[in-house]
Amino acid sequence: MRLIERLKKLEGHYMFIKWVGGCEYAKLVSVAIDFYEFNIIDIETMEYKETIMIRPNLLMEVTYGGADVQRVLAEMCCNMSNGTD
After folding, report:
1. What is the pLDDT of residues 11-52, one digit of tens each?
2. Do 41 and 77 form a contact (C-beta atoms < 8 A)?
3. Could you name the CATH architecture of 3-81?
4. Which of 34, 38, 60, 71 has a 20 to 30 A CA-CA distance from 8?
């Protein structure tokens, strides 16, 4: 299965991404043939700080599971229930 097909299934999920320009926790917004759109999360405030579009050839790693990603997801959900989102 190609990366674009896998990422299509993960739209709307939180993940950790590494690309040529850095690495961040993010929520995958949309997947297209020529770019991937992510909402970047500021770990200190647990709020979205920016939206980036990454060309597919610049994306190096995507981690959508694991303890760190689950912690970020739990904190984001907690912020939403407190009305700070």
Report:
1. 999 999 999 988 999 999 999 999 999 999 998 888 899 999
2. no
3. Roll (2.30)
4. 71
Distance in angstroms (rounded) separating the CA atoms of residues 83 and 14: 19
d(CA 19, CA 21) in angstroms, rounded, equals: 5
| DSSP one-letter string for the chain | --HHHHHHHTTT-EEEEEETTEEEEEEEEEE-SS-EEEEEEETTTTEEEEEEEE-GGGEEEEE--SHHHHHHHHHHHHHHHTT--
Q: How far apart are CA 25 and CA 19, in angstroms?
A: 12
How many Cα atoms occupy the beta-carbon half-sphere of 81 within 13 Å?
6
